[in-house]
Input
Amino acid sequence: MITRKRELPETVKTQMRGGDGEVRMKELLQPGQFCGHGRLFNHMVLAPGCSIGYHEHQGESETFYILAGEARYNDNGTEVTLSPGDCAHTASGQGHSIANAGETPLEFIALIVNS
Output
């Protein structure tokens, strides 16, 4: 199955998980395409000053792969900077947040799979 860029569903969420500003999301896979093993595979974009607030995952993990920009990433209370090519994984029972720490859009792939 091929899905063209123009066919990818796109949504915008404001103050996602208590964060600031907007998050633009393109669904790379639809929920039914996970065969019961996950729920999200998205291309995400945060404009400068925008963020996804701190939250924990239960029964699932989330992985971020940074494509462009600079991120301030909270990994269970420890803040680090992520750059293109960096990957951050949050296991079930752990928490995280992400914010655009630069002057250009922060783009990343987010994947949530069941534990």
In short: The chain has one domain: 7-114.
